[in-house]
User: Fold these one by one.
Assistant:
Number 1:
Amino acid sequence: MSYKANTRDDWENSLDRIERILSDKRQSEAAPVAADAADYPPYCNTGGYEESEKINKLQKTVTKLEANITAVDWLRVTITDLDAYAASMTDLLDDGGIFSQADMDVKWADKGLHGYDTSAAILIWRDNDYLTVGHIAKAERGRNKGGMLELTGTGCKILQLEYPHLWLELFNLLQYHDWRISRADIALDLSGEYALANGYTVPKLLAQAKINGLFQSDKLRNPNMKQSFHIAGDWSDFAIGLLSPDNYDPLEHCPAGLTAYIGNRKTADDFFRVYEKGKELLGGMAEPESVDRGWIRIEHEMSRKASGRIIPLEVMIRPDAHFAESRSGVRAIMDALRAHQTLEAAQQWQREQFKREKGLMLSKKMHWARHSYGRLVRTLIEQGIDAQDIIELLSRTSGLKEFVFDLTDPPQEYTRFKRGEA
């Protein structure tokens, strides 16, 4: 998938689609509005109505879309109105719809999902295979009557980073049809270089959470209420005293990575994950001295499990405002990063890291190819087969359509290829 630039036409096409939706709505409600006009005042004191307010809101959020240092990393929205669900699907699934413009396909299955009767997978094509980046589900009756739309971290990032005008259009579509968020994850990434320079590590953040209430809500009414904590990864050196939060070096210790969980995911509205994203992404192929091993991600998972609260759809376009809301301790980490880095630089870094997350690095592909087929290649060499013949036997007629060339000392004739260009 090639990166689609933010052209003026992109934004205008999105505005036209919203205009069309609102026009259809105006026509369907023309009679009731005319009958009730004398009894009900305008929705705003300037004499405009809800439709104009929504258009103005759309135009004002274009710049806000770019002004975030965090990103939505998971989104699940639901709706109970089947007519509104059907109207939403039209704009999502039709030719020229949001998914089509983002090169996403939809494949319906014979089974349900999350309590819904029917479901479909949202797919993208990557290196001759499909990758699932979301789901759609529907139920005609019962407790879950209505529909659901879910985007994974990859699905969210494709729209936010590669098709931001479509992400904005999706927001307005969901808002217009009164979808509501049942789950949204917001991710704050601290690059390895930044985390190391400022002393951020997973053990230190966990210690601050446990001792100083780093992730505690400022609105906590009961000061004696304790947060729950869980860990994943190999913390054994901490358990026996060989390591402590103060002497832990992410470039040297725990190569498989550490994770800390703050809160109870099953019962709480807010749940946090703090983990070494660089190690998760690069795995054992990262060089020991690579600063990427220090890259930390703080994820805030918001849900409605405990209180049934309303999570505003605005989370989609203003994640910074809702990340760890009313938790000044962890928000201070985000504020410090915003003061240190321009938003433009932050988004460029996010795009570069997203390419890594999509597995586009040749070094990663070679790493897994060596583990999967290295013994076979060595056996063929030992049997006297020429290297060129092995290449012909094992290679396909065409190369990768999209990749990141991150190998050292590339040949002078090297040319980077992406889909549709050379």
Number 2:
Amino acid sequence: MSSESAGQGRPDDSARDDTGPVGAAPSPVSPGPAGPAVAAAGPGAAPGVPNMPPAPPPPWPPVGPYQGGLPSAPPPGPPRRPGRAILVGAGAVLTLILLGLPLGLLWASVAPSIPVRKTEEGAVLTNPQPEEFIAADGWFSVLGLGFGVLAAIALWLLLRRYRGPSSLLVLALGGVGAAIVAWQVGRRIGLAEYQRLLETAPVDKLFNKPPDLRAGAVEWLYGWIPTVQGDLLLPAFGAVVTYTLLAGWSRWPGLRPEPEPPAVSWGWSAPPAPAAAPAPPESGAAEPPRG
């Protein structure tokens, strides 16, 4: 009986905690019904414990850091000197006016002369309504418009630093001046010969008069203000319209070339390489105590 009571008072060995003595830290390996436990992988794992394979990378590329940046404002250019701009504008106006000389020579070569007859009262037209007047005005209009378009393109390309309203003023003044020069040069070619025949030719003599404009003239308002009319305004009109269209199609708000902003990269960054698994334990390494 004493043995039974001793057996009842002694705790069952199977009920003992396998975790070790009381107060000891738990072991990293816990036995289970499915077999030996597997410890978590990591650099601090105990040797001799199998490691978990690294997790596979996600199927989509991770969002990387922004590689670009906000476009920075272009650096300010050198200060513009108004005196230099005035000199450049005056030179451009003078150049356009001088270019009216070849324009007048070209107009005189393509415009037809006007046939006249010598009478006792002077020269009269052989045809009451000759077409040569219309042809002379038409040729001047076509050549004047073409001159204005080419002048605007040349000024846009050559004077990039001075683009703006001042260039429109230069084209307007230079176009009007070139038209007047072309008109006077073209109408004076052959005019001396016409005057000589008008004075010395016999009556009923046929000869030609140099071309002249019927739809263009320069008149003086109040005796001292010049006003330009008709075909003489077409070169300036063509130049101003063409320059305005070029300004409207310009890619720069200030009409002057500006430095390009830095390129912005929207690409994905490469995913980081997976961490290497720790080396397997050696064959002769001792197993850690299990508690």
Number 3:
Amino acid sequence: MFRKNEIEAIDFREFMAGNHHTQKQSPRTKNVRAMSMFFPVITPSSFFPVYDTGFALFFALFLIGSAAIAGSALLQHMTAKAGSPAISEVISSVSGFIFPVVSEAEGRTTTETKDSVPTEI
């Protein structure tokens, strides 16, 4: 495992001329098939199961929500920079109310399924 590398001395003129080439030893080849059986297969489809309808819907809603929040922040910034602080404040107030309400309503609809039965305590 630990090998001591031998030190090779070459002539300075030969080194500066660029004529000296050391022969590199090829590394030992490892059995890739034996090593890969211990690790799971990592593909984009294993991270994002787009053929699962529930995940696809969640991912689409996540992208739409992210775009809406970014668009609202950009519009608020542009109106404030253009000299309309009142419009910017209205956008901020509406966004601060609408986004939590929509996210809470979306969270309730995705956790409830057809088979779930409400229970009373």
Number 4:
Amino acid sequence: MKEIQEFSNTKQNGRLIPQIVQKIGVYYQVNFIQDYEEISNLVYGRASFINNLLTDIYLEDEDFKQYQFDEKTDTYSFEGEIYYSDCEILEALLERKIRQP
């Protein structure tokens, strides 16, 4: 019987996703991409396992500081634009990191 471990919601444990992606990819001999997030812990990223190579690209603390939340209007501001959700902002920030050489 395989041991099952429980993990609390911490930023460090959110970083376990890439390791899990790798283990699944190796075990099943497949390539795949997994987006992951734990916004309450500032964890947002994408792990990919392609041709036995694990790549983990994620937002860091300074990335989250690039946008602001206005409690009065319940909106987010980012690069001069107003958003009603941070989802589009987070996706844009992650895509920029992915495209970086």
